[in-house]
Amino acid sequence: MSEHPENFEPADTVLDPRRITKILAAVADRDAGLLNDNLEGLHPADIADFLEQVSDGDRDAFLELWSGEDAGEVLSELDEGLREEVIGQLDPAALSEGVRDLETDDVVDLVEDLEDHQKEAILDALEDSDRFAVEQSLAFPEDSAGRLMQRNAVTAPEDWTVGQMIDHLRDSTDLPEQFYHVTLLDPRMCPVGNVTLGRLLSSSRATLLKDITEEVFIPIPVTETGEDVAYAFNQYHLISAPVVDEAGRIVGVITIDDAMIVLDEENEEDLLLLAGVSGETSLSDTVAETVRARLPWLAVNLLTAIIASLVISQFEDALTQVVALAVLMPIVASMGGNAGTQSLTVAVRALATRDLTGSNVTRVIRREALAGLANGVFFAVVMGLIGGLWFSSLTIGLVLGVAMIINLLVAGLSGILIPIALEKLDFDPALASGTFVTTVTDVVGFFAFLGLASYVLL
Amino acid sequence: MSEHPENFEPADTVLDPRRITKILAAVADRDAGLLNDNLEGLHPADIADFLEQVSDGDRDAFLELWSGEDAGEVLSELDEGLREEVIGQLDPAALSEGVRDLETDDVVDLVEDLEDHQKEAILDALEDSDRFAVEQSLAFPEDSAGRLMQRNAVTAPEDWTVGQMIDHLRDSTDLPEQFYHVTLLDPRMCPVGNVTLGRLLSSSRATLLKDITEEVFIPIPVTETGEDVAYAFNQYHLISAPVVDEAGRIVGVITIDDAMIVLDEENEEDLLLLAGVSGETSLSDTVAETVRARLPWLAVNLLTAIIASLVISQFEDALTQVVALAVLMPIVASMGGNAGTQSLTVAVRALATRDLTGSNVTRVIRREALAGLANGVFFAVVMGLIGGLWFSSLTIGLVLGVAMIINLLVAGLSGILIPIALEKLDFDPALASGTFVTTVTDVVGFFAFLGLASYVLL
């Protein structure tokens, strides 16, 4: 084991606090040699994380000293928010060399959000064939399969044998760094099947490729959205899939590592949107960027809060006469908001994973309503007792209980119906659902509780 | 194109509403032949989705008629909540045949949560070697690399050549369905490097395997958690990685498709936990299961709501004298709750992706505090004006503004500090963070607003 420490102590190759301290020390001493020694063996993704985590000052100092080795990989791993800044500080030579090492799909991802002059500088660094491939990908709509795909697909005529293919691969000089299938093409360049490299390696040279193709074969239209691509890879456990134009001709290939990144980003976006944070945020954002990402949603929430207050203000008489109402009313609203958020989140996730469909939507709606009702009854009893005893008033307990049932039923229903409605209207169901739902539960909660109370008590 | 419709119309091979209707019709007619025709070409994952989406009655009728083809695949794609039920209704012969087709890692995933008698029935169906492999995996802790891994790794002595390896693969009869690397082992069976099949295929027969190993090589300790495995695959773009015991000897291999599933599940768990839904829920849950998954969290929220009400009740005098306070107080609390949820969600995500570390935590905390303060000042002005004009009282406007600043600052801080604290205490930061944060913002919001008001107005 001691002979291969690098194998069994990932800590040595990853970015642990010890490593960060050593790197920062080298940066502080302005010691380029020591710095680059300390970067030895670090994965570009970890160097990117380092750049995202350190202060602006340390980042600038680092970039002055850094050899720029793997600069391309590091940039494509880096937060989009930081790329322009880092590119601007990189030595142009290191930058050009770095981007030439990248696969074309990584170059596309790297340049698509850059300002034109930086984009140009990077495209100029590429060989003509790669530049052409990148520009073709950039011609496809943002967040489409065309942007995700690697142009350099490994293909073979459908009538080739294993032997022919292996010989061909041995002679090829320009194979992609990673590939998992040989895609069989008919004479019109349309993919007709995938052969895994494993099958290729374990079959006799005389075997026809078309006889060992994979059962699951799903070519991806070049205009398909990244979300749909990620879904297909996750649902059908694809490792790579050919990308085809509207005529069904192959234009590239997408591999699972890219699909995994998209899936992760989609999940992150839903998580943040549900919390009212615009999906574009990152930890390296400045205070100003952070405020900008959150203030709009708080503004929307302010409006909904004011609506709730307007409802409350309709019952000033009741509130002045029975102060208990002011004390208890937030409970009804808060319980409704939480119950609504629960069913909302389940619905948004189910829509994202396509588990909520025409065939079960009515049953799920019914379930949410019943679950809301059941929770409502339970908490009506509990809170009715507490409230009744607290203010030694049976009426208050009853009013509280009934309002609780109404609001939790409404919460369950709005939690499922609002995201479904947004989806139908082609909005992202995660977007603003939360605000709608809590507005409903606040308004209904206050109205039901205070309305009932003034009706019964005054 | 028409020659290969299956290639370019995934709709034909996926589960669209048209397909579902046809299947349900066949089920309604109790027509087994027609049913199994309609299932033709459907991916097991889609059949599983179908079973999850239809009503219990349709599912039972379907299972009576179903040929049980691909039963193993379908089961391993199925919601854990439904597996026992479906297994119970399957024809034992189809079940045994189905599980024999599965890779051992899928069998492990399938049986780990089953009741003993069903687990036994499935293990009995396996060949001895597979059964042994499955039982060894089951001996590792739940949610560990040992449970995720496929036992059947493709390996070679470190001194082999490409030619030797290819000949060996051609002669092998028991290769895994999917494999992407040949893992080189030293004489002590410790992995020392990975060779991608692409490199193997494109190198001359005389090439030594050890000369074409991949740069990034990260063996995974068998006890590592699924979350750490998913992180490693996502961070370092691994396709497959050898799993090693404490002595560094190979015990299996994990492939990216399994890591992708874990990553997706971890994301889903965080999303649901943040909303106060226990991670185990699924759309096929009954009303009772749904209530059970959500009631506990609502109960916790009820406690926090009562605490908030206790705070309010301290200011009954003020509330009875100035009804405006009852009308406006929910606004302060609601804005705080939303701002807190925003920074909380960003923090939870950053902890999950390991972007929030010792090297940037102080800066991020500072940022959240400043962003909260900035938003606080903005909404203090806006809401101070609105409140002041609404009740034509400068004092109320001022009190509202100051309370807003205090609460949004506290919201930003608690949103970042609470998840960090939970993580330090080895709790899942997504767990209960939301409740803690909103409790803080409710209490602080009501206390600051009503406290200030009674101090100034009475």
Automatic annotation (TrEMBL), chains A, B:
NCBIfam families: mgtE. Residues 212-269 form the CBS domain. Acts as a magnesium transporter. It comes from the Bacteria. Pfam families: CBS (PF00571), MgtE (PF01769), MgtE_N (PF03448). The chain crosses the membrane at residues 369-390, 396-422, 434-457. It comes from Meridianimarinicoccus marinus. The keyword Nucleus does not apply. Belongs to the SLC41A transporter family. It is found in: Cell membrane; Membrane. Homodimer. InterPro entries: CBS_dom, CBS_dom_sf, Mg_transptr_MgtE_intracell_dom, MgtE_N_sf, MgtE_transporter, SLC41_membr_dom, SLC41_membr_dom_sf. This is Magnesium transporter MgtE. Keywords: CBS domain, Cell membrane, Magnesium, Membrane, Metal-binding, Transmembrane, Transmembrane helix, Transport. Gene3D superfamilies: CBS-domain (3.10.580.10), MgtE N-terminal domain-like (1.25.60.10), SLC41 divalent cation transporters, integral membrane domain (1.10.357.20). It is a multi-pass membrane protein.
